[in-house]
Amino acid sequence: MAANASTDNSFPLTIMECETALSCEGGESSQNSSSHNGSYHSSLINELAKMVMNFKAKALLLEDEQETLLSILMNLREEVPAEPSTISGLGAVNVADNLIATLADVNLKVTTKRSSHEEEALHQVNNMISQLVFQAQNEVHSTKELCHVYIRSCYQPGQCTDESNLGEGDSFQSFILRCAPDDKQRIRRRLHGLSNYIDSLLKDIYSPTNEVTEK
What we know:
Layout: H1 15-27, H2 34-79, H3 92-105, H4 116-135, H5 140-155, H6 168-176, H7 181-206, H8 210-214
Helix pairs in contact: 2-3, 4-5, 4-7, 5-6, 5-7
């Protein structure tokens, strides 16, 4: 997970402080003007809004981390051959199964409300990224360049395609601009993860083998 959702931990008020402030506000005398109360409540609502958005951003990160861990464990379980129990009484497969079950105990699901246009845009973006994953197996360099074009389109709308002659960037940008905010965060993380994967492929291509190094 390379592209992290931004969170802000520097809130002036904690949740307990907000509850205390609301309690104190209810006990104040009626001499306070309505304009003062309105300003106070507006400020408090703004602080709570920041906390809620920060909480949701963290939940999105945790949801993504859970999916990544589950994927790694599932792949590991398929790769590890059946083996006799270790001294602890559990083999690698059993340990992986236990960890998968532990992850399943944590129910993380951030619901994203989407319009029909946002659903279609997300579908198109996912298809384009899936195509990148497929292309990475045979055309690593061009795929890396296009992946970076897609990443730039997430952060610099209107600028990414000026730096590349790859026309796919235009359509990708038009789709991602129509995606829901939560989906944009997920797409950024997915693209950064794909970029890291492509880098690992390039490293395998250019890294000398131990045999060559020893010679």
